[in-house]
Every structure is written in C-alpha cells, then in structure tokens.
Amino acid sequence: MLCCSSNVCLPVIAGLAVAVGAFGFAAVQPEAGTTGGGCCGGATTAAATTDCCAGGGGCSTGCESETAKGPVEDPQPEPGSAVVGEAAPDFALYDLEGNRYQLSDFTENGQIVVLEWFNPECPFVVKHHERFSTMLDTYAYMLENTPAIEAEGDASADEEMPGVVWLAINSGAEGRQGADPALNAEMHAEWEMPYPILLDPTGIVGRAYDAKTTPHMYVISAEGTLLYAGAIDNNRSAREAGDVNYVIQAFQQHMAGETITDAETQSYGCSVKY
Amino acid sequence: MERAAPQPSEEHARLRLVAPTRALVAGDTNYLGLLFDIDPDWHIYWNGLNDSGFAPSAEWTAPPGVEVGQIIWPAPHRYIAPGDVLDHVYEERVLLLVPVEVPRGIRAGAMLTLRAQVEWLVCKDVCLPGFGDVRLTLPVVEAGSENASTAFASAFESAWARVPLDGGVLDDPRLRVRLAGASIEIDADGARRLSYYPQSEAARVEEPIRRGVSTSGHLRLRRSPYDRGSLSRDPVVRFVIVADFGGDEPPLVVRVERPLSELGG
Predict the structure, then answer these.
(1) For residue B232, what are the contacts with CB-CB under 8 A and spacing of at least 6?
(2) Taking an 8 Å Cβ-Cβ cutoff, which residues of chain A contact chain B?
(3) C-alpha–C-alpha distance, residues A188 and A174, integer Å
(4) Helices A246-255 and A134-144 sit at what angle, rounded to 10 degrees?
(5) Do A271 and B85 touch (CB under 8 A)?
(6) pLDDT by residue (tens digit) across B18-71?
C-alpha cells in the first residue's frame, strides 16, 4: 500500500501514521500511537489516516479531514538559515497530541514567539524546570508585559490571544536520550508546563535554527524577525541560577524600542541529541 | 601481575586529588592534580569554547597561608557530535594541574590538608552532572629534602606534556602564528595534524569543525565572535595550538594570547 505525498509514494506500515499531502519532513511519525501522528494536520484518528492514505499509487490526491483546512504544505527550512536580525525561518511541528503549530500563524497574529530547545533528561533543562522555574517565570513575565491581541474577524470576537507564544522543541532523534514522547508527556505534566512540547525527530527545525544545546533559546518578534539566539541566562552551571536573563533582557529592550545589547550569546547545556 | 581496570560506575567519571610526591615543599609552588578517570566513550570538558557542556570547577579549602591557584588545563581533544556540535574534551584519563603555594614559614613535619569541592559534567550521548568532595593530607618538608615520588608521578608527566607553552616567549622555528584583523594564520612545518582550540569568545572562528584542524600543517582561520557580552568582558584572542608530528616526536602545544586592541581591522 502506498501513501500519497507531493513527490514520493511512501509505503504505509501498519501502526504508523504516514503523512500525506506535502508533509515532507514530518512524513513518518513513528510514535503515532502515542502522539496522534502528523497526518492531515495532526488531528486525525487512525481511521482518518487510513482514508488519507487510501487510493493506491496515486500521488496527487490531497489530504482532507474534518479538522484540517485542506492540504497544507509544511515549510522546509534550510539548515543554518536562522540569522539574528533577519526573518526567522518558518516551520511547522506537531505537539504530543498531534496538534500542528506553524510559526508564521503566530507572527501573522502579531504574537511574539519564544522557542526553547528541550530535553527532559538533560540536567540543564532539569535545572530550569525543577530546581528553578526559570522558563515558566520568564514566560509569565513576558505574558504580563505584553498586551493581549484581539482575535480578528471571528464570530467569537471576544476571544483574546496572548501576546506571547512559547514553544518547547525537542529535536532528539528517535531512541536518543529524552526523545521518547511518553517521557515528554510525563515531564510536561510533572513540570506543569503551560505551553506545548513540539517534536522535531528529524532535526530539521533544530538544524535550521542551529540549536546546539538544551536549553537553547530564541525570541522572534511579532513581525517575524529573529531578535535573540542563545542562553537563557548567564550562569552556565547545571546547578546555579544566573542573574541576567537574556530572554527577558532582549524582550524588554525590544518592547522599549531599544537596540538589543546581547542579541546573540553562547548557549549552554547538553548537546541536542540529533 | 595484572591490575584490575577501573570499574565503570554510575557516575562515569571518578575524581581523586593526588600529588606527584609524598610531601609538600615549604617556600615553593607545589602542583597537585585533580585526576579524573572517565569511562570509555564518556568525556568531560575543557575550559575553552564548547558548543555544549561545561568545564569542571573547584572550590578549595586550604590551611591559612596556603594559596591555591587557578587550574592549569592540558590541551583537550576535539569531539564532534551530530548537529555540528563541536566540543573540546578529555577522555579516559586527565589530570588537571593545580598550583599550591606553601609559605616558607610552615615548619617541616606539619601536616597540611587540602580539600576541593568539584563540580563537573560528564557526557556520552547523555549528560550527567558530577560532584566530588576530595581531600589530600601531606607532610611539609624543607626545600632540598628528600621527597619521594608517588604512583601518580607519571600521570603528572603526561599532563605537563600537554600543558600549553607560552607562545609569547616560545621560540620554535617550526611554528609561525600571524594575527591580523580577523585573520589567523598558523603554520607548523612537518605537522601531521595541526589543531586549533579557541579559549575565548574573541578566538571563535568561522567553520571550526572543517577549518579548525589540518593535516597539511597550515591553518587559515577567520575570527567571528558573536557573544558581545563575553567579548567585552574578555577582549583577548586566546587559543591553544597542538601540532602533532607523529613518530616519537613530542607534540608542540602552545598558547597564544593577544588583546583585541592590538589587532587592526
């Protein structure tokens, strides 16, 4: 049996969700059973996957489901394409429940986006999520200091969107330390993370942003410009907290219209487990 | 008789505080060592530029008057992980040298205890933080007294062989280093392998994985620091060169330091 893709026909393996349409880099979601997979916008069931992938060798059929808005092409960011001061490369990834997140959807809303490279088994990530609450505190600070955005043109126009979107990204390859989706789900709950963990098992987004460590932080303006890349703070130890939070510093300077003094710092942590 | 190999442990790196001789010499700089035995495939970090990890750090407790100096770091090895992560690391065994000044006034026969609380990170495909609380008690002898070697004397010799010489005073005709603006040119006649180890942000170079090592004896590098905070705190181009000549010839290990203000461009 073959599954449709924009350019290639992928064999459908029982128990695996295989993306259709042009979900290039997320083509195979080996943990579909636990993550919901990436087919048809990520919100599909196993049945929907089968439907998507039916039709034999035809490779032109689009992928439809009741939740997806039709075939969506996932961006394919080039390695090393993220440059501070320039447009942040667009990407789409899926969280642990299979929900799809595309960077440009948020920046088109006028939301600031923070990316946090993540590995729940890395001592440095543990430091900032367990010993300290650096990440959650930083997110909370940014939310408090950003006006909410009114959703446009929707019937439910009362709804407001937060001014900041925070995304954890795990670029660990399958089988490597901290990559197991079940473990990520467990730590997501244990650390009460109010934002999603996106899985990047092929590392395409990690390599586009040249993420070296967990954590490795990126701040993207509401206009889609990469404002900051580097460490969360200035203490490179696995135990102690720093006294300069570079993400907050970049955010404050950006909001005040000032030049960001430390737009790039050397990140610290464990190597990303590509 | 065969000695049992160190057993791999859950910590993956074991630390001891050791001395090359059985006593400390009064009125002299003595060198002690933080000796790490590291499990196969695991590594700990050098104190230069690394894409991940961090170098060991020590807090010392010493008797009054005894001064413990900064760690002297032997040259590391390059370690490249997937995702173009370049680290400078130690594998298997490394001895970090620690200068200890024992004042002249301490009488012979006194027992001195030094204590180090050490924090490090040991990594393979996973990383684990390590902590060690190590002590060493040694008697003091007068300069010129008999002072027998310990079993660790050879580990100290190996470590010293990879401690960088000061490039500012080194006069070895085989090695030429030129810094101008952003350019760094290193030539080592006859070197089978020439490696560049950046130790400060100002010494960060473009494409370090591809360009930071050479088998032709020539390195052509372009500096490209980006962390402006580190640069302003430490505006010095500082790096270590290791030239391996093969055979029995000892490697040439050299440290170069140049203030940014001295470089044009």
Answers:
(1) none
(2) 121-124, 171, 173, 176-177, 203, 206-207, 210-213, 230, 234, 236-239, 261-266, 268-274
(3) 18
(4) 10
(5) yes
(6) 999 999 999 999 999 999 999 999 999 999 999 999 999 999 999 999 999 999
Closest residue, chain B, to A207 (C-alpha)? B83
pLDDT digit string (tens) for B122-151? 999 888 989 999 999 999 999 999 999 999
pTM of the model: 0.81
Domains of chain B: 13-161 (2.60.40.1250), 165-262 (2.60.40)
Alpha carbon of B160: minimum distance to chain A alpha carbons (Å): 28
End-to-end Cα spacing for chain B: 62
Q: How far is CA B203 from CA A86, B52, B133, B186, in A?
A: 25, 17, 33, 13
Among A16-20, B115-119, B148-152, the minimum mean pLDDT is found in A16-20
SS3 B143: coil
Distances (CA, A) of A42 to A62, A99, A245: 15, 5, 34
Chain B residues lying within 8 Å of A238, measured CB to CB: 54, 119, 121, 129
Interface probe for A, chosen from B226, B230, B232, B234 (most Cβ of A below 10 Å), is B226
Top-tier CATH class for A92-271: alpha beta
Q: Which residues of A touch B128 (CB under 8 A)?
A: 123
Chain region(s) in chain A for CATH 3.40.30.10: 92-271
Q: Are A212 and B87 an interchain contact pair (Cβ–Cβ within 8 Å)? A: no
ipTM of model: 0.81
Per the listing, tokens 């899985």 go with: A199
